[in-house]
Specification:
It comes from Corynebacterium yudongzhengii. The protein is of the alpha/beta class. It has eleven helices and 13 strands. Strands 1-3-2-4-12-5 form a six-stranded mixed sheet, with helices on both faces. Strand 8, helix 6 and strand 9 form a beta-alpha-beta unit. The longest helix has 15 residues. The protein is globular and about 60 Å long.
Length: about 290
């Protein structure tokens, strides 16, 4: 059998030796030598993973997909050789992990960007939004990006141009057309449903019944300010040149997988093609600014 999916609930709770056995992961050696390549993610219930697994089987690559229930554990598991590669995060998240954990996990291939968008119930453009109070996510990963969405929309001016992760304190309120109010990311949809404009994470749109196409503005994936939010395949430096891992990353770009990703994202995911060297340069810049 070429494909096995492991529900890694135990791995999300404890990175103990017992968990290693439970996940069927034997440390040591090159990935794929004498066992499957172990891939960690947090969204393995999505159809694209089944499409991807079928392609890997056709290629004769033995894989084991390990599902994690939280966002920090897949990087911990990778750093501790419980898995060989993971695919669940963007470069900004990876940079924060590496700096906070003194780790050196490395991106090897880009996948897609999920644009972050501004919504305003009953409106289909930015017309009339001047003077409004806009809710934005207050978590460290998305707050700065949300502010830059408003910068790109011409609604907010920063005291210093080009900040990758600005905070509300960086906003020049007198020069801006709107004000911002940080709230819990899960509450942004509720603010929108009350009739107020809000920047809402892609993951909260479906559960709130909000059509992504109703966005009145979203960040441009080709803009430099969006680079930190490129989603990536990530591995350790020792495996950064592993041919089978790179082949798996290439399979994710297969049209059948990309079609499934687009369907799962409600039409919002945008495929990204950046070289391994470009991704590392972006990561290095993000880590430098975070230190």
């Amino acid at each position: 059998m070429k494909f096995q999916k492991i529900i890694g609930g135990l791995a999300a709770v404890s990175l103990s030796a017992t968990t290693l056995v439970a996940c069927g992961a034997d440390g040591g050696g090159e990935p794929g030598e004498g066992g499957p390549i172990r891939i960690g993610s947090t969204d393995t219930n999505m159809r694209e993973w089944d499409v991807f697994a079928d392609l890997a089987e056709e290629e004769g690559i033995d894989i084991e997909i390990v599902d994690f229930s939280d966002y920090n554990t897949p990087n911990d598991a990778l750093a501790q050789d419980q898995i060989d590669v993971n695919k669940f995060q963007h470069l900004q998240f990876l940079s924060e992990y590496n700096v906070g954990s003194n780790a050196d996990l490395t991106p090897i291939s880009a996948t897609e960007i999920y644009p972050l968008a501004l919504f305003w119930q009953g409106h289909d453009s930015l017309d009339g939004i001047e003077g409004e109070e806009i809710a934005i996510p207050n978590d460290s990963t998305n707050q700065g990006r949300a502010i830059n969405v408003l910068v790109q929309a011409g609604l907010v001016t920063l005291r210093e141009d080009g900040l990758i992760n600005p905070t509300p304190a960086d906003i020049d309120e007198e020069a801006s057309d709107v004000t911002v109010t940080p709230v819990d990311a899960a509450q942004t949809a509720a603010v929108y449903q009350e009739g107020n404009p809000a920047v809402i994470n892609n993951s909260f749109l479906e559960r709130a019944g909000i059509d992504p196409k109703e966005a009145i503005f979203q960040d441009d994936p080709s803009n430099e300010e969006a680079e930190p939010y490129i989603n990536v395949w990530v591995t350790t430096p020792d495996n950064a040149d592993n041919e089978e891992i790179h082949r798996l990353a290439e399979l994710w770009k297969d049209p059948a997988v990309e079609e499934a990703v687009l369907e799962s994202s409600g039409g919002t995911a945008v495929p990204v093609d950046r070289s391994q060297e470009e991704l590392q340069e972006i990561l290095d810049r993000l880590e430098s600014e975070a230190q």
